[in-house]
């Protein structure tokens, strides 16, 4: 990791370097993704099966593309009962948290006969993308599916890449069944996003696509946005830790590495007011990296996007944290709650030395699908709001419209929209 004393030039250079990780800079892949998306749109299942054979080595047909009840039963038999219990406890925490996000319709009336309100309606079809293949991410299944279920979505369509044997990883499949996915299809990559966006002979078209994935998935979501809605275009994982001299350097180092192990583009940053802590964290990172299983990925991630930033005050540390707008932000200071009040931009905020980032990944309840690459300045974590839409309700009595008509006509005529004005005026003309 590079150790830097914060200054205006170093901050600017750092921000520019981190933005290189953004999916918006993956231009070299865009033409490939556009070709795949277009092909699936035109040829449907035929193209979907060809790409699955090419990229995943699995032979799909209309008969085996959807997971069957027999495969679900096999998955339950293969999953450790203790892990199944953990999945269920985690899912309950996620459900309880997201229940608190639910919005309800409302109406507001006045004595002269106006009714204004808002109608909240769940999406009819939600598409859930879950990474797969060699890896298993049952936690992502829960984080995508549970809020959709809480929102009231009736059709939750999940896609995930199969292994070469044409099967879905058992833990992923069990999590999907527990969380309430309606159907699970064995497809991944850009071709799966295209199938959800446009529909094929086997896979229904959805209204919104959510969930993280690799570069191809991110760019495919970007390509189909507008035809369907998406949650966001996810980039590589990131963590930023704000710490002072009271922090435990061993804990801080362990937490930084918990994100660096995701991939070589992951970012791990410590911002501290203590040079002593900075040196100790660096030492512990070296100790841990020697014995962790993903050492090669860790080392490349830290070499490329790992930083220890030394700030001259806690206010300066907060300022750089707000500029970076990290996906995960840990505050390990003497009074983390006070520091938290100054944070404006972060996906998820973890307070105190016992609230490490993996707690949010797996168990606490808040969603772990979060904005990355500085987009926490304007995006939020995935939640129930992502799976509903809102309609405005407007009712005016004749008495109420009588009071407002002159204002509306004047406004319409100011914009030279005479038909708008006439729509109001005609209601009050003598016949």
From TrEMBL:
Record's keyword terms, sorted: Amino-acid biosynthesis, Histidine biosynthesis, Metal-binding, NAD, Oxidoreductase, Zinc
GO cellular component labels: cytosol
Cofactor note: Binds 1 zinc ion per subunit.
Enzyme Commission number: 1.1.1.23
Gene3D superfamilies recorded: 1.20.5.1300, Nitrogenase molybdenum iron protein domain
Known pathway: Amino-acid biosynthesis; L-histidine biosynthesis; L-histidine from 5-phospho-alpha-D-ribose 1-diphosphate: step 9/9
The organism's place on the tree of life at top rank: Bacteria
UniProt enzyme class: oxidoreductase
Cofactors required: Zn(2+)
CDD domains referenced in this protein's UniProt entry, alphabetically: Histidinol_dh
Binding site for substrate: 237, 259, 262, 328, 361, 415, 420
Location of the active site: 327 (proton acceptor), 328 (proton acceptor)
Any GO molecular function: zinc ion binding
Keyword Zinc found: yes
InterPro entries documented for this protein: Ald_DH/histidinol_DH, Histidinol_DH_CS, Histidinol_DH_monofunct, Hstdl_DH
Residues bound to NAD(+): 129, 191, 214
Gene Ontology BP terms: L-histidine biosynthetic process
Binding site for Zn(2+): 259, 262, 361, 420
Catalytic reactions of this protein: L-histidinol + 2 NAD(+) + H2O = L-histidine + 2 NADH + 3 H(+)
Homology family: Belongs to the histidinol dehydrogenase family.
HAMAP family referenced in this protein's UniProt entry, alphabetically: HisD (MF_01024)
NCBIfam families hit by this protein: hisD (TIGR00069)
Function (record text): Catalyzes the sequential NAD-dependent oxidations of L-histidinol to L-histidinaldehyde and then to L-histidine.
Protein name per the record: Histidinol dehydrogenase
Source organism of this protein record: Catenibacillus scindens
Highest classification ranks of the organism: Bacteria, Bacillati, Bacillota, Clostridia, Lachnospirales
